[in-house]
Design brief:
By secondary structure, this protein is α+β, with helices and mostly antiparallel strands. It has three helices and six strands; from the N terminus they run ββββαββαα. The radius of gyration is 16 Å and the shape is globular.
C-alpha cells in the first residue's frame, strides 16, 4: 500500500480513515455545514468537538451514510459515502452517545454489545 508523510514527518497509509472536502448541508434556510474539510489518518484517534449547533452530529450522520450531503465529497475507509454507502457501512460501526443502558454498563461493555449486535467476535 502506498505511504505518505504527515506534517510531523510520521508515515501514514495513503487511504485515510475519513477524507471529506467542502462538505455542506442545509435544512431549508438553515446552513448547518458550510464547507467542512477533514482528513483523519487510518489508525488514529480523532475527537470532533464544538458547541451545540456546530454541525458535529450532521457531519457524523453524513459520514455514516444516514443522511446525504448537499455538497462536497467524503470517503470513509476508501469508500465514497454517496456512491458506495454499502461499502462505508461494511467498514464502520457507529454507536450513539446515549442509550437506554448508559447508566448500567461501561464504555467497554457498550462496545462489546455493539460488536455482538453486528455478529463480531
Amino acid at each position: 500500500m502506498p505511504v505518505s508523510r504527515q506534517g510531523d514527518g510520521r508515515r501514514s497509509s495513503a487511504v485515510a480513515a475519513v477524507h471529506a472536502t467542502d462538505l455542506r448541508k442545509s435544512y431549508g434556510d438553515k446552513v448547518v455545514l458550510d464547507g467542512i474539510d477533514l482528513r483523519i489518518p487510518s489508525g488514529s484517534v480523532f475527537a470532533l468537538l464544538g458547541p451545540n449547533g456546530a454541525g458535529k452530529t450532521t457531519a457524523v450522520k453524513i459520514l455514516s451514510t444516514l443522511i446525504r450531503a448537499d455538497g462536497g465529497r467524503a470517503q470513509v475507509a476508501g469508500h465514497d459515502v454517496a456512491a458506495s454507502p454499502d461499502g462505508v457501512r461494511a467498514a464502520i460501526g457507529v454507536t450513539g452517545q446515549f442509550s437506554a443502558v448508559d447508566g448500567l454498563i461501561t464504555g467497554e461493555e457498550n462496545m462489546h454489545l455493539m460488536a455482538d449486535l453486528h455478529h463480531l467476535s
